[in-house]
Amino acid sequence: xxxxxxxxxxxxxxxxxxxxxxxxxxxxxxxxxxxxxxxxxxxxxxxxxxxxxxxxxxxxxxxxxxxxxxxxxxxxxxxxxxxxxxxxxxxxxxxxxxxxxxxxxxxxxxxxxxxxxxxxxxxxxxxxxxxxxxxxxxxxxxxxxxxxxxxxxxxxxxxxxxxxxxxxxxxxxxxxxxxxxxxxxxxxxxxxxxxxxxxxxxxxxxxxxxxxxxxxxxxxxxxxxxxxxxxxxxxxxxxxxxxxxxxxxxxxxxxxxxxxxxxxxxxxxxxxxxxxxxxxxxxxxxxxxxxxxxxxxxxxxxxxxxxxxxxxxxxxxxxxxxxxxxxxxxxxxxxxxxxxxxxxxxxxxxxxxxxxxxxxxxxxxxxxxxxxxxxxxxxxxxxxxxxxx
Length: 389
Prior knowledge:
Number of strands: 21
Strand content: 15-25%
Helix content: 25-40%
Radius of gyration: 24 Å
Number of helices: 12
Largest sheet: 7 strands, mixed
Distance between the termini: 21 Å
Oligomer: single chain
């Protein structure tokens, strides 16, 4: 069988590409169902885009690469598609859009778009070999069949969540055809700390500003048995490296000094830790009291002592010894070097008709629907380029 286009990977980017590629198009995936990462995302409701998506929300060796695709297929284009299919959605926080009902609505929408485009889908099917040929590419399938294609699109994602079948397939194909691959590492991932440091605080959540020399995020932080998680930690993990210190502001937007100084005038006999428990979780205050000066009553605290305490709580410096790895990482940082791809079409500059889209590419979004938007935009860019060729 010869196809105009074969897309490997029936995830967000692959299905989006198939909906726009035109001609005879086959989508292949080794999983038993399409869009599995869509299905589990956002607690089962799929944070499918972000109202504020822009190139600044993405990490890449070339920060300009994503601009073309994101500008030509925007969050508003995808929101229009969702609306046309009658899918109810809502904004949660910070521009994050979720389905009211289920992430399965997004999968059904993409499958409907593929059907409208006459794109075929084969599940439980693997690709064991891809080779260049006069007509484009020859592909060997895991069941022994041989097919050919004019165009091949690699949409197999990165290494995150291997239990769902994630692998380095895209990187292997890139290297096979001489395309460089940047360093890859887990991103949007919880951080771990030695010796069960935060185990007694497991389950405690608090607002926090997490920052290092490269980025800063104001969102919730969650203590776990193995370390730290929550949106702010997942965000900073994409900008963190082993051995690096991160700074935690436990009082974002709070002037603790003025608050405690005022309370000292009217309730000086109150215990300092009791007052701190009004702005921080009690278990966290008890933990911090072991290495920050929090003893005594308010009346015992000088202005200098209160200022020093505020400084310590706004500049809590900690060093993680690792992360939870690809097992729980939401995405993979790094990937196919963007210098090897055409930013408008996602086509390899050196291998005609070979395309890479989605998470496989060295474009990684923040938490909050940005990575799905990159999947939609890059899939659309490749699909429309193929259809126009």
